[in-house]
Structure formats: C-alpha cells, structure tokens
Design goal:
single chain, 315 residues, alpha/beta, Rossmann fold
Length: 315
C-alpha cells in the first residue's frame, strides 16, 4: 500500500512522507497526489498572516484547541523562511504547537518557502491537498509574514485573518495599501498592551473606507490575548461565520475555482518552462542567439521568438 492509500486512511506518518516527497519535487509524490486528488475539496482553509512578533504561533495553538473542542480535525501548515544553506525551514516544527502532538485529530507541518516568489511554494498548495484528503476539517496556513507572503496567502485560503499588535505605529498605515485589502478578519493580539484600543480604532476607520461593493461582509476587528486564551472563542466563531457567509453568497465556490485555476496555470508554466529548458540545454542555436544578444545584434524579444520558432519540444 502506497503513501496515498495510507494517508486516505488518516495515517499521519504516510501523510508527512507524502508531503516531503512533494516538497522535494519527487515524481513519485506527484503520482501519489493524483490518487488522492478526487478526495479533496472538503476542508475549510484558513490563512493566518501578520508581522513577526505578532504571536501567530501562540494564536494558532489556541485556535487549534478551540476548533478541537468543537469536534473538528485540524491540519496546520506553518510557512517558515527558507534556510539559505539547507533550504529547510529555519523555525522547524513549531514548539508551541507540540502539546497537540499526541492528538490524532491534529497534524502540524512546517514548510520552507524555498525561495519561491511570495514565499508560498507550490508544495504548500499540494500539502493542503494532502491534509484535505486525510480528512482534516480545517486547514490553517500560517505565514511568517514577511513582505509578499501576507498578500499571497489569499491565493490559498478561503478565509484570511490578519494579525497585528499594539506598538506597530506607522506600520498600521503601511498595511492600508497591502494586507488591509485581503483580510476577512482582523486580529489585534496582545491586546493587554498599551495602545490596543487605538490599533482597533485605526483598523476600523481604514476598513470603513474599503470597497465592499461585492460583498456584504464587513471584516470584524477582534482583540485577543493568545497567551491567556482571551478572545479565542469569539475569533473562531467569526471564522465559521465568514465561512457560512461564503457559502450563502456563493463566494466560496468562486474562491475555490479561482484557487484551482491559479494552481493549474502556475503548473502549466512550470512544466512548460522545465521542458523548454531541458530542450535548450547544450543547444548550439541558443548559444548563437545569446552571443548575438550580448553583442546587441538582436533584441531580447526577437531572440525569444526566434528560439521558440525553431524549437521542437514534446509537451
């Protein structure tokens, strides 16, 4: 029995090994994924993003506990920055979540960005498919929150929660042009610190200026103190309220369709690129064109067209 069959039975070790194969780009992992794909599409995918130091891992830990109280299984993919030396996840499996390690209804997996533009690698999407097929009701994708990661998570999640904290100062203003546009729920964590109410006020003012023409959902701003478990029940209530809103409005099917189409398009680009690259390796015509390009005898656009015109690739 392969990893796919065992994963479909809920075997966490098999699921972890299958995700590892996908991370490494192993063709065997892709073949296994083909087997489980018909069993996907049931999970609620929740994105959790925000700046370093906002307490996302502690928050995730509390969210897991609250969702488990409601009888649902939880899978977590924690996106960590890639190590420049090993390509592995610097932070590793999140220590704060290890108290759930004996709970068969919880699966926590750290995943490196591996230098992918935007931080969320193809393997993240594939990993979410594995957890979905394994029967996890809610899949939390937690980013480290550096730059474009915060915006790209909306491509993967059904509901996106943005975490901020008191003391960010002008960072709240900087959020307006970026992640304020993608958040479905806003969390002010560490709300026992001075300035929490001011952050809530700023966020509410900015959200009121946001265009809500395509949705009746007004993103709530929720105060939490994750370290003490304060505000977690209300937060999880809002996660499921937003999911219900997506279902009732038909937006969920639209988001799922866009998610599938985006992954499909990226996959086409990747496979086509790799096949073209392989076909060009050692190609004398390519060497000639590149020499002309360096000498400014041909422009890059014409060079590409000339290569493609004469290229024979078995796609």
């Amino acid at each position: 029995m392969g990893y796919a069959e065992k994963a479909l039975e809920g075997n966490q070790l098999a699921g972890a090994r299958l995700i590892r194969l996908l991370e490494e780009g192993d063709p065997n992992g892709v073949e296994e994924l083909k087997t489980i794909y018909p069993h996907t599409g049931r999970a609620f995918i929740l994105g959790l993003t925000g700046p370093p130091g906002a307490g996302k891992s502690t928050l995730t830990d509390r969210i897991i506990s609250e969702i488990r109280k409601r009888g649902k299984k939880v899978g977590v993919i924690a996106i960590d920055p890639s190590s420049p030396f090993s390509g592995g996840a610097i932070l590793g499996d999140r220590i704060r979540m290890q108290r759930h390690s004996t709970d068969e209804g919880v699966f926590v997996r750290s995943m490196a960005t591996r230098g992918h533009l935007g931080g969320l690698s193809k393997a993240t999407f594939e990993g979410s498919l594995v957890l979905d097929a394994m029967g996890y009701d809610v899949i939390i994708i937690e980013t480290v929150g550096v730059g474009q990661d915060e915006v790209d998570i909306v491509d993967l999640a059904h509901t996106t929660a943005v975490v901020s904290l008191p003391g960010m100062g002008d960072d709240i203003q900087a959020m307006k042009a970026g992640i304020l546009e993608i958040g479905d729920i806003f969390i002010v964590n560490k709300a026992d610190k001075p300035g929490a109410d001011e952050v809530v006020k700023q966020l509410n003012v900015m959200l009121e200026m946001r265009d809500h023409s395509d949705s009746s959902w007004m993103p709530p701003v929720i105060k939490t103190i994750a370290a003490k478990g304060v505000g977690i029940e209300e937060l999880v209530d809002n996660f499921f309220l937003h999911r219900q809103h997506l279902l009732d409005s038909g937006l969920l099917s639209k988001r799922v369709e866009e998610r599938q189409q985006r992954f499909f398009t990226d996959l086409v680009k990747e496979i086509a690129y790799n096949k073209i690259k392989d076909a060009l390796t050692g190609n004398e015509e390519l060497k000639r064109i590149l020499k002309s390009l360096r000498a400014r005898e041909i422009d890059p656009y014409s060079a590409v067209n000339e290569i493609l015109k004469n290229l024979t690739v078995d796609l």
